[in-house]
Amino acid sequence: MSVRITKPKTHRGKRMLAKREPKIVELAKQALMLRGSTASVTSLQFVKDLYSIKRMQSTYFGQKHPYNPFEDVKPIEELTQKYDHSLFAFCSDNKKRPNNVILGRMFDHQLLDMIEFGVEQFKSLTAIRNAKVMDGNKPCLIFSGDVWHQNEEYSKCKSLLIDFFRGEVVEQVRLAGFEHALSFTAVDGKIFLRSYKILMTKSGTKTPHIELEEIGPSADLVIRRTKLASADLFKRACRTPSAAKPKKVKNMSKDVFGSKLGRIHMPRQDYRKLQVKRGRALRTEKSPKKASKLSKK
Questions:
Q1: pTM assigned to the model
Q2: What are the CA-CA distances from residue 67 to residues 37, 64, 71, 84, 224 (Å)?
Q3: Could you give the 3-state DSSP secondary structure of residue 50?
Q4: How many Å apart are CA 119 and CA 117, to the nearest integer?
Q5: In DSSP terms, which residues pair with 194 in a beta bridge?
Q6: For the segment 93-105, what is each residue's pLDDT rounded down to a tens digit?
Q7: Hey, how many other C-beta atoms are within 10 angstroms of the C-beta on 253?
Q8: 191: which residues sit within 8 A by CB, 6+ positions away?
Q9: How do 31-36 and 87-92 pair as beta strands?
Q10: 48-79 tens-digit pLDDT
Q11: Rounded to an integer, what distance in angstroms lies between the CA atom of residue 182 and that of residue 129?
């Protein structure tokens, strides 16, 4: 099978292709929000709320798409490649799987893994009438429950949720910048999703008093079907390029607190030749013969 390669003829096309080339340091992952042909009100509103949380890094398509990713993922791969997105959310509904939402991610324009959720006990952003956070705010992700580390399926689900909601990678964090918290609690075969606004009030000390106010969305998620990546493919997707790895500096290290430590190698010193100021008690007295000769002169 021959693949036709067309070269860009305009500067705009060259810039677009250069923007889509693989980068050493990845930018924030973009998500594609899609609607199935038979989406219910609950599943559609859930995807719209996800779009509201990721408004700065997502694209929403409101038209109906008559396909199912678990039956044929090729149309999803073509759309994500066309719009240069690496995440997707797809909502649908049928008698066997009501209020269905599929979250997935891509690697090299091909499906890496995806998980199907059933949405229960859903409350949307508009149903909870509280003050919301600003668009583009980086959320604080909280995962509660031992099952996240004990079950491989849940550990991959945790990795997918982190990729979906983490946003841009930052090096420094300001305390006042913590305004939004997303909590995922796994217990009794369900994942309880809760969204809170972090309120900081005066406490009389340097550390402020923290209060959480629920802002939505709120939902109980049930894992239905999964399509996980193989161990080799997942390892290849998580590989860090050699150019992005920090270069090791000789005789330099860091402690557990991140402080930089250095080791200096010096030759053995002769302390008798050090030029220091000596006190009278440490001075060597002159011999009496030399003292008499000096007095005669």
A1: 0.78
A2: 8, 9, 8, 20, 18
A3: helix
A4: 6
A5: 183
A6: 999 999 999 999 9
A7: 11
A8: 117, 157, 184, 185, 220, 221, 222, 223
A9: parallel
A10: 999 999 988 999 998 999 889 999 999 999 99
A11: 17
